[in-house]
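From the pipeline queue, job 12 of 40. The input is one protein chain; the requested action is below.

Action: predict structure.
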Amino acid sequence: MLNAILGSEPPVVAPALLAGEWRADGVQAERVGPYVRRVVSRAVLADDQAVRTTVQYAHQSARRMAALAPAARAEVLERAAELAVRHRDAIARLIALELGKPLKDGRGELDRVADTFAVCAAETRRIGGELLPVAGWARGVGNTALTYRAPAGVALAITPFNAPANLLAHKLGASFAAGNTTIVKAPPQAPAVSAAVVALLLEAGAPMEAVQLLHGGGDVGAALCAAPEVAVISFTGSVETGAAVARAAGAKRLVLELGGNAATIVCEDADIAQAAAVCARTGYTNSGQSCISVQRVYVQRVRYAEFAVAFGKEVAALKVGDPLDPETDVGSMVDDAAAERVAAWAAQAAADGATIALGGTRTGATLSPTVVLDPPAGADVVAREVFGALVAVLPYDDFDEVLAACNGSRYGLQAGLFTRDIGRIVTAWRELEVGGLVVNGSSNFRLDHVPFGGVKDSGFGRESPACMIEDYTVVKTLLLRGLSIWGTQA
């Protein structure tokens, strides 16, 4: 199936994986590539019966998946990592076609898929339990307590379009590592990429019961979330959709990553050339469609003009165009409406007194990299999640002031800080209301084996294989009365 999905001639049919069978029949939805402006894939849509069949099959498969030894799971994940490397270019090309993401970024994403599967494999081998210190308290003397981590059962992974391969690898890899059966609800914008990643795991030797794949819209997601057989849900997407997921799920375990409005602070002691280059490179990766993409850059006023000039030169040097060109830095956004929204936000900021130093225009779904200087604090480009090829650059005077400005956002996912002052670093780490701080780098940096997640409206829970395995498992305790390695003397 993987070779069929990665065939050289689009459009690709993105099949559903239902009750252990790849199914290409049924009502299909067409995906038009935002840059190539033609149909690049067709997804087989799930109906109500498909949802019911999926849930029932997953529930029936949970016991078999739980019986698969961690060593066997790890070996599958290691082979999946190798397959991700082997099919790197083909899947990156599919990402470029479905999403307009530059080929070089797609290749980088597949490198991360391989790393993510490999880390999941390593974490699988470490799943175990504890001998608890019950004899340290009088009532525990003479007893023994043990725990182990058991699979949750059925996990639901709802993935976004902006990093469809790696974010699916995180959710699916960790769930498989934990011993669950997983239902994947793919993003409508990237059905073929999602099918390819699922096929990687199956081609690596995972049982067909390990995963099912459905395509569709919010109605399919809502029905899956509400299913009582589903034990845990991992969702990446908007705040509004995340809230809908939580409402539909009810009393289920949730891991929600709900976006951001990432700030990067540049202090007066920073290397301005380095900071400008890093912020330019990471502010427009994937046309800014990343929850940790650099959106707000706060520069200490004494270096503000210098940074603005250096940053503008770096942004102007980015190559914009065909995502299938290996030299392209900035391709298209996900669709025309997304590009038009960001262009409109830039124009409104200019009307309110900001300066558009670069960009602000679009051709179809391609927004020219846009730099907005000194917008008002209440402007959409500052206060809301842009999720597009736009960076706002603002001056600040003192460090406490800029920390307060960063914390004024409803989001709190990740931030960046350029400084050599250890006092500022510790203060920012303590005071910034974010899940992670990157020092001498922008907000847009992530290591896939390190805990990642936010606070406030950026969601809750942490994504990394080790953290997600904890969410995808339940602790089971064994109490042995009258039997203790410590003896029975109170």
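Job complete. The radius of gyration is 24 Å.
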